[in-house]
Amino acid sequence: xxxxxxxxxxxxxxxxxxxxxxxxxxxxxxxxxxxxxxxxxxxxxxxxxxxxxxxxxxxxxxxxxxxxxxxxxxxxxxxxxxxxxxxxxxxxxxxxxxxxxxxxxxxxxxxxxxxxxxxxxxxxxxxxxxxxxxxxxxxxxxxxxxxxxxxxxxxxxxxxxxxxxxxxxxxxxxxxxxxxxxxxxxxxxxxxxxxxxxxxxxxxxxxxxxxxxxxxxxxxxxxxxxxx
Length: 228
Prior knowledge:
- Strand 4 and strand 5 form a beta hairpin.
- The N and C termini lie far apart (53 Å).
- This protein has helices at residues 2-23, 68-72, 127-139, 161-174, 219-224; strands at 28-32, 40-45, 50-55, 80-88, 91-107, 112-126, 145-149, 152-156, 181-190, 193-203, 213-218.
- It has one domain (27-224).
- It is α+β, with helices and mostly antiparallel strands.
- The protein has five helices and eleven strands; from the N terminus they run H-E-E-E-H-E-E-E-H-E-E-H-E-E-E-H.
- The longest helix is centred in the N-terminal third of the chain and has 22 residues, at 2-23.
């Protein structure tokens, strides 16, 4: 009888430990979207009062990717962006994440010694919020829609999915950011064209108006960037 009881207790402890370990297992990507690799950035130049267009950059001055100090000093630039569904602790979540060019001056006061780097920023939302965001995107009503979360962070360096998932795990466990991050967009038909306008995830307090500073791409390209 005692032997049987001991076996039952051991079985219960092992089962509980296994379940706990499974619940706390690191998040894994279930499905990834196609990457969005091109979007036109638009921003009004205050001096000329005209909109300035750039590839993959929102800036009020014309620049190319070779102008790394302009790109890197402007948070709203992208190399690519995509979304992914993921499982964590038995629940489904979605990640908006993008790779971009960053940098800093060695001597910022004199703007000397610019050094570039790449980084990946992510924002994770639950399945309910993602479904609502995507539903509004598909309706193309021209309304500004936003997904917001504290589960956000970034990692510097070349894209590394293993490092990204570790950072996502930490953010989901500890809600790394003390601020809310917003991914804002709107879709509509304008002058016969189906388009999407958006801003890369940023602190909600700094979230700018889409009419004045935004990325624009074809609606189909934006929709492909949203995973099922």
